[in-house]
Amino acid sequence: MSKEVSRILERKARIFNVQKYSIYDGPGIRTLIFFKGCPLRCKWCSNPEGLERKYQVMYKEDLCIHCGQCIAVCPVNIHNFSEESRHHVNRDIDCIGCRKCEEICPKQALSIAGEDKSISEVLEIIQQDALFYLSSGGGVTLGGGEVTAQPEFATNLLMECKRMGINTAIETCGYVKLDSLLMIAQFTDLFLYDLKHIDSDRHYELTGVRNERILDNLTELIRRGYHVKVRMPLIKGLNDGFDTLRRTLEFLKPFQSCKNFQGIDLLPYHRLGINKYKQLDKKYTINGDLTYTTEELDRIAEIIREYEMNVKVIRH
Hints:
With 316 residues, the protein is an alpha/beta fold. The chain has helices at residues 3-9, 69-73, 100-104, 119-127, 130-136, 151-163, 178-185, 200-207, 212-223, 242-252, 274-279, 294-306; strands spanning 12-22, 30-35, 56-59, 79-81, 87-89, 110-113, 115-118, 139-144, 167-172, 190-194, 228-234, 261-268, 311-313. The chain has a nine-stranded mixed β-sheet. It has a two-stranded antiparallel sheet with strand order 3-6. A hairpin with a 5-residue loop joins strand 4 and strand 5. It is globular, with a radius of gyration of 21 Å.
């Protein structure tokens, strides 16, 4: 092995989860690698532990017995007791990722979000399920957080996957410099590309960034022949209005004739990540249950079919 290849394989990225046997994020059975760090702050995000690049302490208060063992081992004094002699996480101090508190906690009330892994380490995990990829037409999908926030690692990892004959996909919000996106695109078989709102002002209100770059990048990927499937998160009352949907479909309409445009996935709102906000001492700002009935989703899908676009509802 050359020094250059060895250097590439030891390049590291910060990830926060690996999910095996996924059937929702690309063709076949897939392994999902979740990268830490994201430029957006979507109000409905189900992976809040993936938003920031830094290590984060996740604390399950209902499991804690307030024994103080974590206080004794933390080298930066993140853990302490409140005046009521109850465990408290000081969010003003940055976790260094030593995982000593996680390891010593007798009730598994503590976990650390974020782990630095090399390309060779991630490839070892991916290769464990090579037979499943082969039998199902599956592969690896990189997501997050936002995978394009760590573009060099993503590019090298995808390159190695392609070298081994593994199908590749990425989930992306599209808010990235075009040069970085095209670098990654060389080794990406499928883009799962989010369109969260077609109106830039409303997009800013819901995600913290405007959408011009996102729309421009999507157009460039399709124009250059890369395979793209648009994913539309549906949040009742926030981005699912009739006019909003029509405007989105009118934007996508010119791509219908492009064979590399593979249609639309609908991602209806769910509440699976809400407990994570409490574990991070963050506020979840969506109030009420915004989940959809089957009939409501069928109506939205039917509107998309009127535009002669393939559509699939992804129900987690």
